[in-house]
Structures are given as structure tokens and as C-alpha cells.
Design a protein that fits this description.
113 residues; mainly alpha; two-stranded antiparallel sheet; 2 strands; 46% helix
Length: 113
Amino acid sequence: MITEAILKINPNAEVSVIGSDINTCEINWLNGTTPISKADIKAQFSAVEFDMVMQDLRFKRNNLLAQTDYLALSDQTMTAEMTAYRQALRDITNGLTTVEEVEAVVFPEKPEA
């Protein structure tokens, strides 16, 4: 998470991190990368955690959509229920702003094809 927090502050940073605890880790700034304070890095942890849970949610959502993609082909007629299900999946990330909201997401139930 430390490296991800650093890259959130400076996407071009070149760095190596030894250890996983921000208080005791060793951070080596490479190729002239301007060092960032550990306090500033730590301040990004909640944003990094949110990005990680959103990435996981999108991965699960995309897999569920992929399972029904064949129904969206031009030679198929999708039911209204399936159309609504797929739209609910696409909208599932809308308005989420906290890790707790993401973790509380309940996926819609897949209708019969």
C-alpha cells in the first residue's frame, strides 16, 4: 500500500520500499525522485484502500456482465429483466464514496436468461 500511496501523490515516482509498515519501512527514492514525507504518504492510505476495494468490486461486476454478454449479441433478444439486471450491474459503482459503502454492496440477482 505504501508504493500505491506514493504513486497516488507522484505517478512518476521511482521508488523501492522495504517493509510494509509506514513507520518502520525503508523508502529509497530513485533516479532523482523528490522524497515525500511519511506523513503525506500515510495520508493517502484511505484513498488507496478505497481504490483497491473499488477495483475488486469492478472486477466482480465485470465478470457477472461477461457471463451474460452472449445475450447482448444481435441474434439474441434480451428480456426486460435481463436488460434491467445488466443495467443494475453497470450502475452498481455509482455514488460510492467510502470503503464501507463498497463493502456493503449487494449484487442484483441474475434473472433467468
